[in-house]
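#struct-pred
JK: can someone run the complex with zinc ion? inputs below
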Amino acid sequence: MAVKDPWVEYFMVGILQMRCSVVTDRATGDTVIIDGGAEPERIIQWIDEFSGQGPDWTNGPQSFAEMKEMNIPSRKVVALLNTHAHFDHSGHIPDLKDRYQVDWYLHPDDTFLQTLAQKSALRYGFQIPEPAVADVDLIADQLLDVGALTFEIRHTPGHTLGGCSLLLLVEDGPDHLFVGDTLFAGSVGRTDLPDTGGDFSVLAHSIHTQLWPLDPSTLVYPGHGPMTTIGHEKETNPFVGDSSGAGTYTIGKYS
Ligand SMILES: [Zn+2]
Ligand SMILES: [Zn+2]
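RT: done, structure tokens with the ligand placed:
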């Protein structure tokens, strides 16, 4: 079922400043963490205690007193979802699983990539836990109910083989789309990363067929950089927007 006025927070985490989003249904407190890739203690502290550095952006309460005023019940993390398995997005899933004991969802075409997370992190010079193994497969075109939140799963390969865009259905406002590194404000995800299956023509096809048909008002939460909307990117994105034609292509800048 579409949620009303979701409480959304995001945290730009880790050395690659990856966007970890936390979505809560204000009526039930059901909460989903999207792309728990780094700084798990910061995210856990905030969700459990409203303490520590907190989110970089929120449209919800910032203390238990405010939560009570707004009649929001205690938060309950019901699932961990991932847009794809690059280590900056998935490296600290084991810590979040340890704390919340819930299923982790990933598209199976990224399973191989996930096994390489430690190796990829080492390339940037740091260590992460033994990679998590997904509990549940994300399936293209499925309507996924996690607690009171419903996501439409759009398989958008091109940055990685199993990349998905997760569309949170909202009853009383624009839907929210968590795209990972498929689409950025004014750019697109890299397609040259090792062991990943990146391919620009596949990426462009994914965006054209899975994302552009969405309502122009759809809010886009990219894995890195500023937020945007489907309408704005469709009109102006130099790589995949309406004016990009079949012209030259240079790679995007985010991993
Ligand atoms: Zn990525
Ligand atoms: Zn990334």
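RT: quick notes.
The radius of gyration is 17 Å.
The mean pLDDT is 94.
JK: thanks, will look after standup
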